[in-house]
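Q: Please design a sequence for this.
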């Protein structure tokens, strides 16, 4: 696993956007580049950078197919807290990407299991995901794979923990009861099947999670720790998130990464 430590949030986002653009631009196969995407506050700066690059002609999304990580169950697209709304508002409405290339789980489906099975099939029909970008929750959850979700899980229905509903209540008038109690989410196995995984971890409130994921054991308690078993996983983080890793670990990654541009 690579851990790329950047001085602050803006630099972390710039680095991640440069990395994603480089991967898209290096893709020479006939089939589209398949990109997995998250919501949340963490990726917003990355989306802003990618939008700038798209407008500057530095990266094109014409041959990119996207799959989002998750969606709240029971929220219509038009709800300003649905992940469909978030993705269009923060990213898709500002880049040139064919609408048919965008895939987001349908939170209003009357057949959640079928919706999730079809999502997995569609990912497979493109030959899998080339690069999955993610963020994590303070408890280390990846997508909506809460603690103790199987590390081989596939796309499915997830119950949200009280902790996550409390954390996410900041977007729902600070009322955890207003946060949907279930979501549709790709599984940990869906993410780790991707050729590359890039997870953003920033801010003091993610310091415990970063330490668990980088220095802890592979454990379903911190589902993001499954990345330790991935051959091509990168964590991009900021200094603020490094408060709980040991000085040795911190120095190791600064040293090993010092000559890498991307
Ligand atoms: C939600 C999402 C996750 C996201 C997490 C962290 O629970 N389902 O995919 O990574 O929030 O969000 P933030 O980046 O706002 O801290």
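A: Design:
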């Amino acid at each position: 696993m690579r851990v790329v430590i950047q001085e602050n949030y803006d630099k972390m986002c710039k680095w991640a956007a440069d990395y994603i653009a480089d991967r898209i631009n290096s893709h020479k196969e006939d089939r589209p580049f398949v990109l997995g995407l998250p919501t949340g506050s963490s990726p917003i700066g990355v989306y802003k950078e990618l939008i700038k690059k798209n407008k500057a002609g530095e990266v094109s999304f014409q041959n990119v197919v996207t799959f989002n990580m998750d969606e709240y169950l029971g929220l219509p697209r038009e709800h300003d807290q649905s992940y469909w709304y978030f993705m269009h508002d923060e990213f898709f409405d500002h880049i040139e990407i064919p609408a048919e290339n965008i895939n987001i789980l349908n939170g209003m489906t009357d057949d959640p299991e079928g919706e999730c099975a079809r999502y997995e099939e569609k990912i497979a029909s493109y030959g899998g995901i080339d690069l999955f970008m993610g963020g994590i929750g303070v408890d280390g959850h990846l997508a909506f794979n809460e603690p103790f979700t199987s590390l081989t899980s596939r796309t499915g229905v997830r119950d949200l923990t009280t902790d996550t509903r409390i954390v996410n209540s900041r977007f729902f008038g600070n009322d955890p009861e207003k946060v949907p109690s279930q979501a549709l989410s790709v599984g940990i196995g869906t993410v780790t099947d991707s050729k590359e995984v890039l997870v953003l971890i920033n801010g003091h409130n993610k310091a415990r999670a970063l330490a668990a994921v980088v220095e802890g054991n592979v454990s379903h308690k911190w589902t993001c720790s499954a990345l330790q078993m991935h051959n091509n996983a990168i964590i991009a983080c900021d200094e603020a998130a490094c408060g709980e890793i040991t000085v040795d670990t911190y120095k190791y990654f600064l040293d090993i990464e010092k000559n890498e541009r991307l």
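Q: Thanks. Anything notable?
A: The mean pLDDT is 97. The pocket of GLP is lined by residues 38-42, 69-70, 135-137, 143-144, 164, 168 (CB under 6 Å).
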